[in-house]
Amino acid sequence: MSAHLARRVLAELIGTALLVFFGAGSVVAAIIAGDGRLDYAGLGVIGLSFGLVIAIVWYAFSRTSGAHINPAVSIALASVRRFPWRDVPAYVVAQLVGAVLGALLIVAVYGRRATEIGGLGLTAMSPGAGYVKGVVAEALGTFLLLLAYLSLAVDRRAPPGSAGPAGFVIGFAVSAGMFVLGPITGGSLNPARTFGPYVVNSLFDGLTPWREFWVYVVGPVLGGVLAALGYVVVARRVREVPEEAPEGAEGAEGASEGRQVPPEDRPDRDGPDRDSSDRDSPVEHPRGDDGRG
């Protein structure tokens, strides 16, 4: 492993550990504060906690690793060639290890009580929800997360100044998913976020619904990949050209009105050496994933 990749992997490990400790840890805190009960107000506080910690991690590590802190994000970006597949295994392992470390930190702070009354903030489906509903719910939440990530952190056409609030928008996309999906699946949207508390809760003999774990893998990965593919297709870059070039106009730039034509239908102005699929795509590598650090 190169030193550059090792630095990025370490950023993913630390970021995911912070996500689980402050995110899943807020579930334990809410249950303790509620004398063993968790109502919707408590869920709102948990959602805000997740959103804030994701924003902070984004600002801290986005230029180093892209701040994926979620296997579904890494896989989704790789599926549209905006992240190298060769780095996906290292990122995913780091995210899973970081999640376990974050769950261990919850035990270090709250003790065994965290496993007994809060299950370390683990996610579980509500009674009667069903596996299909769980997969759909997790996919929809992760779809929203990837739309935020792609549009603000990856798309080269993001509005000027959007990099500033990007972390908060991405974080609160997760919060919004939790507000809606929390009563159904707990609103994980992240296989690592579920994996860490599951592993550590099992180590301390807590009740862990491992039979549901696949829902928290398939749902987020499916939703993330669909969001990435859909974004590339729907938000595809186009160029304005005139229906009929006015007299004296030199090309498309001389027309005030025109129709949108995909770039492959226009003459190649970028040179023959550039990959046309990258030229047409609205997305590029996230900051920190382009090899510059």
Automatic annotation (TrEMBL):
Ranges of compositional bias, category Low complexity: 248-259
Protein name (record): Aquaporin family protein
Species for this entry: Planosporangium mesophilum
PANTHER family tied to this protein: AQUAPORIN TRANSPORTER, MIP17260P
Domain of life: Bacteria
NCBIfam families linked to this entry: MIP (TIGR00861)
Lineage of the species this protein comes from: Bacteria, Bacillati, Actinomycetota, Actinomycetes, Micromonosporales
Region of interest called Disordered, as start-end residue ranges on this chain: 242-293
Annotated localization: Cell membrane
Keywords: Cell membrane, Membrane, Transmembrane, Transmembrane helix, Transport
Molecular-function GO terms, alphabetical: water channel activity
Membrane topology: Multi-pass membrane protein
Keyword set includes Amino-acid biosynthesis: no
PROSITE patterns: MIP (PS00221)
Basic and acidic residues biased stretches: 262-293
A GO term from the CC aspect: plasma membrane
Residue spans crossing the bilayer: 12-34, 40-61, 90-111, 131-154, 166-185, 213-234
Record family assignment: Belongs to the MIP/aquaporin (TC 1.A.8) family.
